[in-house]
Amino acid sequence: MKNFIIIVCVWFAAMSCAPPPPPDTSAFDEGVAKFNVNVEIVDATFNLFENGDLDGMIANYADDLIWSPPNTSDSLSKEVLAEGMRGWHAEFENFTFRDRQYYPGVSEGDYIPDGGVRVYGVWDFTHKATGKVLSQKYYAVLQCNDEGKIVADLEWFDQGGIFDQVEE
Known about the structure:
CATH architecture: Roll
Strand order of the largest sheet: 1-5-4-3-2
CATH topology: Nuclear Transport Factor 2, Chain: A
Distance between the termini: 91 Å
Shape: elongated
Radius of gyration: 24 Å
Number of strands: 5
CATH class: Alpha Beta
Order of helices and strands: HHHEHEEEEH
Strand content: 25-35%
Number of helices: 5
Oligomer: single chain
């Protein structure tokens, strides 16, 4: 019996020193892989806006898009997004989105990459009527579906500050 107790104690001691099993990284790796695909879609969408290809840009959005621009807390449609982007191009030109930084979105609670894209950057553009060159910091959170279309676009920037710059 004494030998059995010693064997059990040695076994427990050995097991407590063993490293824990590796975490399941499949969900993490899958989220990072989705992010890498989606960041290309998002980046291309910004490039299309910069280049004035609004039809190409809008084609990157799903028909059931949820768009939340900075001037509202409502969820707006793809059609309203298209109208808004045409409005920006009607009033401004020479769009450049510089200092782009892309980070993965994460799931709530466990903070595992979920394929979402968070983007920071600075928009530079010229007001057509006054010729003033303007600059605006920008942040957005975007989600894409499995078909490679943007299904959610939540944006934050100081829209009023843009028009304050025009009036200066």
